[in-house]
TrEMBL record:
The chain crosses the membrane at residues 12-31, 79-100, 106-128, 149-168, 174-196, 227-249, 261-282, 294-317, 323-348, 360-378, 390-407. The keyword Cell membrane applies. CDD domains: MFS_MefA_like (cd06173). Keywords: Cell membrane, Membrane, Transmembrane, Transmembrane helix. It is found in: Cell membrane. It comes from the Bacteria. It holds the Pfam family MFS_1. It is a multi-pass membrane protein. This is MFS transporter. Signal peptide: none annotated. It comes from Planococcus dechangensis.
């Protein structure tokens, strides 16, 4: 295939990838919200809701390294199509069970776990394929579109899920979910996942190694690449300390500032709005030249924004002052979140060798997901025992220290040796 034809195919991939990602992500968001409402309506129990949440998180945490191995050692297109088909079968099976026996909590928990696991396989295979689907010059645009899809799903998923839950039967709700997954599979089936592959015959021959050897090899590759290790460990710390925000924001806003539920909904939605605006910005700007340095600054800003959540607790603002302040703060948080993720995502697509990319993303997914329930539990307890502002300040300081150490100047120069040769004013420009 000549270069012009490859570029046309890559352009097709860029938009097909975005649409299929939007459909799948939006569908998952609608499903998660609708099923959660159903569990609460059926049982009225927070414990039942929590079990459904665990069924969503646990498979992703345990199986992500294995999913990375599968993505590296088997055709990525087959992995994507099979895992998406597994999601169709899981939701379709729940629909058939509901039509014959009525929904039960056990059936919902099993379906939730299966959908979570299959969507995780799809996500890791897709994440490790972007550099194979899209030409190098447009990887940042692809990552930006991916972030836009996530933001739209975050904004629209609960809205559509709530509307469907209120106006259609649960069977129709599940049928719509199945149709969304089918449409995503049909789009993904038209894509060439080896368009820009660089894998050698030696790399492909490693498909015969055992699962354990393959996963161990991925961990060894990660340890040997100090810059990628820094990215992964920083991401894990970021997820852990920002669990304090996910728990603390509703605690501070609703419990301590008495913000009304409808206004709090707008405050949370501003995170996704900020993500969408930042994604649009990255889709039209030039590729970031020094992504590790760029993301370091964005993380430092996020750390300060985290500390800013405590300001209404000590500043004595009016009710509307608190609401407007939190709206702006969460908008800034959403923007900075994309400013961290997009440049780092592009860097990992380009710098991680193709035969290890799935395992690196799998390890990152597993460790990051493991930090979330741990953070929820720890900070949930701390907010009950310690004034909220102290917890928030401590997390902000810890994140500042972690970032300053992990992404210290020596690491930045190791990633970009040319920075040591540039005058300071050129580096900052």
């Amino acid at each position: 295939m000549n270069e012009a034809a490859k570029l046309r195919q890559a352009t097709y991939h860029l938009y097909t990838f975005t649409v299929s990602k939007l459909i799948a992500t939006f569908g998952s968001s609608v499903y998660a919200f609708g099923i959660s409402l159903y569990v609460l309506a059926l049982t009225g129990s927070a414990a039942s809701f929590a079990i459904n949440l665990i069924c969503s998180i646990l498979p992703r945490t345990l199986l992500a390294p294995f999913a990375g191995y599968v993505a590296d050692n088997y055709p990525k297109k087959a992995v994507v199509l099979l895992s998406q088909s597994a999601s169709i079968l899981s939701v379709g099976g729940l629909l058939l069970y509901s039509m014959s026996n009525g929904l039960s909590l056990t059936a919902i928990y099993i379906a939730t776990a299966l959908v979570s696991a299959s969507s995780m396989f799809t996500g890791i295979a897709f994440s490790s394929s972007i550099a194979n689907l899209i030409d190098s010059d447009r990887i940042q645009k692809a990552m930006s579109y991916n972030q836009s899809a996530l933001a739209l799903a975050t904004i629209g998923g609960p809205v559509v899920g709530g509307m469907l839950f209120g106006f259609v039967s649960m069977n129709m709700f599940l049928l719509i979910q199945v149709l969304a997954y089918v449409l995503a599979v049909l789009l993904e089936a038209t894509m060439n996942f080896r368009l820009y592959t660089k894998r050698t015959e030696i790399a492909d021959s490693k498909a015969n190694q055992s699962v354990w050897q393959g996963m161990k090899e991925g961990a060894m590759y990660l340890r040997k690449n100090r810059v990628i290790t820094v990215i992964v460990t920083t991401a894990i710390g970021l997820n852990f300390f920002f669990s304090a925000l996910m728990i603390g924001l509703p605690f501070v806003a609703i419990q301590q500032l008495n913000v009304q539920a409808v206004h709090f909904g707008f405050i949370e939605a501003m995170i996704a709005v900020g993500m969408l605006l930042a994604s649009i910005y990255f889709s039209v700007r030039k590729e970031v030249k020094f992504p590790l340095q760029f993301s370091k600054r964005a993380i430092l800003v996020m750390s300060l924004l985290l500390a800013g959540v405590s300001l209404p607790l000590v500043a004595g603002l009016s009710y509307w002052g608190n609401v407007i302040y939190l709206l702006v703060l969460m908008l800034a948080f959403g923007v900075s979140n994309v400013f961290v993720n997009t440049p780092i995502g592009v860097m990992m697509q380009k710098d991680v060798e193709e035969e290890y990319r799935g395992r690196v993303f799998g390890i990152l997914e597993s460790m990051a997901m493991a930090m979330m329930p741990l953070g929820y539990l720890l900070f949930g307890l701390l907010y009950d025992l310690v004034p909220a502002e102290y917890v928030i300040w401590a997390c902000s300081l810890c994140l500042l220290a972690l970032t300053a150490y992990n992404m210290r100047p020596a690491i930045i120069r190791e990633a970009y040796p040319q920075l040591a040769e540039k005058p300071l004013e050129k580096v900052l420009s």
